[in-house]
Amino acid sequence: MKKILLFILTILVSHITFSQCMVIEIPLTERINKASIIIEGEVISKQGFWDAKRQNIFTVNTIKPFKNFKGVLFNNTTVDIITMGGTVGLNRLDISNALKLNIGDVGLFILKDSPVALTKRGNFLTTVEGAQGFVKYDTSAVSYTHLTLPTNR
What we know:
Elements lengths: L1 H19 L7 H7 L2 E14 L6 E14 L8 E6 L1 E3 L2 E3 L12 E8 L10 E4 L6 E3 L17
């Protein structure tokens, strides 16, 4: 009886643990429809800030846009995107499934207005559907393909 109970408990715990880590992929068309701004750009800086209630840490990632595909930008030189987690002084907050951007990351940002109030003032955006709102480009794999077309004889 103890072995059966232990087996059932093990299955329940593993199921609960697994279900906490699942991310449901949202189709690209749905993400695009939810977005107010879509840009292509590069992360040029990042800095951590407390929220207005000083309960959570967020990172403000400054993006240099290369191209605007949708929406109107607040200013044409940079865009500030908020992501969950970050570092302020000796305090750090890690969110396992949150988008983590690094300086130099280049890609497509699918954005909407951010509902987060920070201690820093500004016009902030956030990605649509968290980490799925950023499509990172692999800049190390740039190559040129030469196409040879057959000639009719």
